[in-house]
């Protein structure tokens, strides 16, 4: 009954169109009132949910990515990818996927990825003879890589939702192989489609020009070296590397690339405040919600229920994946990570599944949810950039959903994909 | 009046402090024929210590086992226990908290505006150094970065002992030791084992026993005032029993985990801590001047 | 000319944006400073961590108020979109009332939390009262409440020039 009051009021509030963050807050108040907990305690959770040092990495990672995206980084990454794979048949679609791989290495945001790479490449691909719907489908599905390839603020969010017990360094390293696997799978699919549809080849870029393009892109890609290298070598903590990435991104944009005007900086401030605070306040209210779930012992009950269904971890993982896919089509990634991690992690831990591995399953699964209707932020942004109806993009995405689904299966059932690299590095 | 007391602890289920409070709840339940029950929320599920103490103040948590850190700002006297080498050894610390000084401090907490009722003390163990290279004297510590709890007093303590005190979050310590951001940290054997810090390379446990800081458990004042006089007396009685029970569990836990650590190849280094005691005299002078009388009484306790 | 209250809200909106923007700007400098003092000056500083967290509170709760006015918060509109217009506006009224409730809660209980913790200090920085670190909560809650009231009286202001500042300036560049 307790659970019904809390979860029921949340779903009801969400259904009438209240912003999700505030739904979580109000549902927590209703839940606290129901089980007779002083409302001050909910307030304490809201404050302490944000008053956390480990949280700092999230705004920093988002901001570093935003600075790079605003400052014309995406254009350079596209050019760099063009040097490497542009000359193959269907080259521009491969360029798109690869540019997203690179973009993912400096940002964790699929939305920013789609918006910036899409606005460069969708018109370009159309001009060269690719259907616009195909170009958009490539862009949105390729952008899912950003969540897996480090840095990933969603991985930080997962670590946080797990109570800070999972190291951010291992989550970051764990994302590399699944991220590359996703890139390769999507690229293979693009090759097949390009061959069948006879999409055009690009030209081989002359060496001198190619070198210049590479050098240009390297400044931005150094961001990942700073972040991963800093964390892995122990020079910086995750927070520190993220903050240094911000300073670095700013330095590269303003003093090396110099294509972002100082008087445009207020735009960056406006955009950053709007995009980052909505995630941060969601974290705060989700902490209240999680607190009520704990007091009502909902995670314990869900664990008992799920492990009662089966004690086979493959069956449970399949069930969890189905649950995540369904919820992922309906809801955004960050609230789902925050709400579901405390519920599901005890279950999978009990079954002997590594929390880092489970994190990767969640990232891939909810990442797919970003590009599925009815609610898919990246899908929406992709449609808006391409000026195509959501239905048209969704249809064009169908083969890509299949490819991503295969990646999800592989990541779910081959733990080594997630765990081999972190173990190799002793994390 | 029938009620279910919510008890909370940062330590996980099965930890001596948690078990002692749970058993206290069982005794309460038996003595009141099930009128008063206790529900335990271990393992920081309700938040960190700071959030939990705030929840206790507003009555959302009824019984809280906490370190003295968050009590210090409201009852400064408890800070005397944070002083390096203020106790000769663990037995000395137990004699102090069991005796009049311990009771006075509990009463001070109850009388303070913190809206808490001091129920009793718990053994927090004694903290020693664990490092990647063996440490036997202050000279060995020279140039070593040692993680300390985030309080200037502790950082100064480490600096006085010869090393470089670095404050960082507990969760970052493993990676920090592994990657060399710090050369070691300090804690008691059970924590060294459960946090796996020895796996990060801190294989030398030098028994400096520089900090012996008892812990405390408190009740929300709001809850206390709801209890009848008889129930309050029951809570007091079982609290004292919990204080004694935890200690036995704690000693067993230290023995068990020390054996496990040795089996994992951790070297326990017995050292003469007199040079460290002497080296930290300025720290006691700087932070302890306001408690000079209290320190004298502690030293006089047998 | 927009009504006085809306122009007042414009001011409040800009104040929120710039306060939050300044906070994140300072955060991104303070943490590297901590690294610098650790490696170059060889002394770990105590203050960067608590100050950065304080700024993050300011950024989050005051910035979120501006994000609310801009309609940036994620909401599910899938179920309300197909409804008839009358029903949809009834829902909007209900949502606004519920927003008043939650923002009122943050403002009121946030104030209480600040007052209760005003005399406590944080362990790393003894001069900084805990209450100050929480002050962004009631301020942000109250600012959001003002924007909710504005929306109840005048409708959504997300399309105002000031609120769409960054989009409008992008279009300029493209044109
Ligand atoms: Na990324
Ligand atoms: Na979706």
From TrEMBL, chain A:
It is found in: Cell inner membrane. The keyword Transferase does not apply. Keywords: Cell inner membrane, Cell membrane, Membrane, Transmembrane, Transmembrane helix, Transport. The chain crosses the membrane at residues 49-69, 76-95, 171-194, 215-236, 242-260, 272-294, 314-331, 336-353, 359-386, 398-421. It is a multi-pass membrane protein. Residues 7-417 form the TRAP C4-dicarboxylate transport system permease DctM subunit domain. It holds the Pfam family DctM. NCBIfam families: dctM. The complex comprises the extracytoplasmic solute receptor protein and the two transmembrane proteins. Belongs to the TRAP transporter large permease family. Part of the tripartite ATP-independent periplasmic (TRAP) transport system. This is TRAP transporter large permease protein. The lineage of its organism: Bacteria, Pseudomonadati, Pseudomonadota, Betaproteobacteria, Burkholderiales.
TrEMBL record, chain C:
InterPro entries: DctQ (IPR055348), TRAP_DctQ (IPR007387). It is a multi-pass membrane protein. Pfam families: DctQ. It comes from the Bacteria. It is found in: Cell inner membrane. Residues 27-153 form the Tripartite ATP-independent periplasmic transporters DctQ component domain. Keywords: Cell inner membrane, Cell membrane, Membrane, Transmembrane, Transmembrane helix, Transport. The chain crosses the membrane at residues 12-31, 51-70, 91-111, 131-154. Part of the tripartite ATP-independent periplasmic (TRAP) transport system. The complex comprises the extracytoplasmic solute receptor protein and the two transmembrane proteins. PANTHER family: 2,3-DIKETO-L-GULONATE TRAP TRANSPORTER SMALL PERMEASE PROTEIN YIAM (PTHR35011), TRAP TRANSPORTER SMALL PERMEASE PROTEIN (PTHR35011:SF11). Belongs to the TRAP transporter small permease family. This is TRAP transporter small permease protein. It comes from Variovorax beijingensis. The lineage of its organism: Bacteria, Pseudomonadati, Pseudomonadota, Betaproteobacteria, Burkholderiales.
